[in-house]
Amino acid sequence: MLMDGKIRGFLKTVPLAAVGLLFLCLCGAGCADRDESGADAGPGPARAREVTVRPVRPEVPGGTLEYVGTLEADQKVDVSSETGGTVERLCFEKGEKVRKGQLLAEINTRSARLRVREARASVAAARNRLAKMEKGSRPEEIRIAEASLAEAEAGLVEAEKHLRRMTRLHGTGAVSENVLDAAVRRVDTARARAASARNRVSLMRQGPRKEDRMAARAKLRHAEAVLLLARDRLKKSMIRAPLSGIIAFRNVEEGEVIPPGRRITRIVDPSRMKISLAVAEKDLRRLKAGARFPFTVDAVRGALFSCRLSFRSPTADPATRSFPVEFRVDKPDPRMADGMTARVRIPA
Q1: Do both 193 and 280 map to the same domain?
Q2: What is the rounded average pLDDT of the residues 134-153?
Q3: Are the beta carbons of 42 and 212 closer than 8 angstroms?
Q4: Are 234 and 109 in contact (CB under 8 A)?
Q5: Which has fewest Cβ within 10 Å: 22, 113, 187, 258?
Q6: What is the pLDDT of residues 17-68, one digit of tens each?
Q7: Are the C-beta atoms of 44 and 267 separated by less than 8 Å?
Q8: What is the pLDDT of residue 188?
Q9: How are beta strands 59-60 and 238-240 bridged, if at all?
Q10: Same domain, 243 and 296
Q11: Do residue 250 and residue 329 come from a single domain?
Q12: Given this model, what pLDDT does residue 47 score?
């Protein structure tokens, strides 16, 4: 009894914090660093342990496995500009619905249109030259050339007569040397003019040479190729929607100068959705091609949807040893959006 009284007196005088500290010290004394076999670990470095990574596979009531995946639009395309230059026009706003083929933007279209006009004029000129060459000269043109030849030959005859007269006069000293030289030059000029007219008439009667026609055709083909290239550049400068959907964002503004390859916007088609996730190897047998599975979306509380297996990868991800799979959403809900979290339930 006396001893019990002393103990109670001691406990009254010792603070509770001191008692707690004493308890922790006693517990720490009994805990030593040991390895898995129970022996002391010693002063050596700690050993690395292997860690196996597996996909999240929680079980829900009712013997069902729940896999977490990402809800994605089956079609979403980043729209970029193949050509650089000034953004002359933008025809869309973010959040707007667009149709396939709808004009979205114009990049340097003014200069592109000018190049098309220039190339079109070059094609027309080359085509006219070739057509004229292949048809040959018209009878009227030949008659005009023949008249020019007759005139040139008459001029030559007259120049030669004048030269003979000046030569006689020069022999008698009636004209100077300069007058005689002028008469000689007049004959030379008339002779050259007559020769040119004669060649022209001959060519017009014979028609163009084969080599000339081939060269004209080559020039026409080159002009047509330049026109095609100019039209292609104009087409690329007018950016159109590659699919129907909703504009996710607008990455450029009118008047901005952008480089080739600049992303302008992204179009998302919410009419077809899919769920992408990774399944553990041991659960693959539960997934049959075309089978349907229920799923929920975190952002759409209280609703249960249906999807079917559309793809199962034949190879595993080497990092996680899991298999990528995709599920096609049967009836996409307007409340669903690209990037939302979806939970697919697979029977255990």
Answers
A1: no
A2: 82
A3: no
A4: yes
A5: 22
A6: 444 444 444 444 444 444 444 444 444 445 555 544 444 545 555 578 999 9
A7: no
A8: 95
A9: unpaired
A10: no
A11: no
A12: 57
pLDDT of residue 201: 83
Beta strands at 300-312 and 322-329: parallel, antiparallel or unpaired: antiparallel
What percent of the chain is modeled with pLDDT above 70? 81
Letter for the amino acid at 158?
E
Q: Do residues 264 and 80 touch, judged by C-beta distance below 8 A? A: yes
CA distance 260 to 186: 66
| Structure tokens, 334 | 């307007």
CATH number of the domain to which 67 belongs = 2.40.30.170
Both 101 and 244 in one domain: the answer is: yes
Residue owning tokens 């060269």 = 215
Residue 22 domain flag:
no
What share of the chain has pLDDT > 90, as a percent?
A: 64
Q: Closest Cα to residue 308, out of 265, 260, 271, 346?
A: 346
| Counts of helices then strands in the chain (DSSP H, E) | 6, 13
Q: Per-residue pLDDT tens for 197-235? A: 988 888 777 777 778 888 999 999 999 999 999 999 999
The answer as to whether 10 is a domain residue is no
277 phi/psi in degrees, rounded to 5 = -155, 175
Q: Which pLDDT belongs to residue 31?
A: 41
Residues shown for the chain: 348
Domain count for the chain, please give it.
3
Q: Are 298 and 339 a contacting pair, CB within 8 Å?
A: no
What DSSP line would sit under 242-281, residue for residue?
Answer: SSSEEEEEE---TT-EE-TT-EEEEEEEEEEEEEEEEEEG
Q: Of 128, 127, 112, which is closest to residue 229 (Cα–Cα)?
A: 112
Domain hosting 305: range is 59-77+269-347
**Which tokens sit at 111?**
């200069």
Tokens coding 87: 């953004």
State residue 210's pLDDT score: 79
- 275, 69 Cβ separation under 8 angstroms: yes
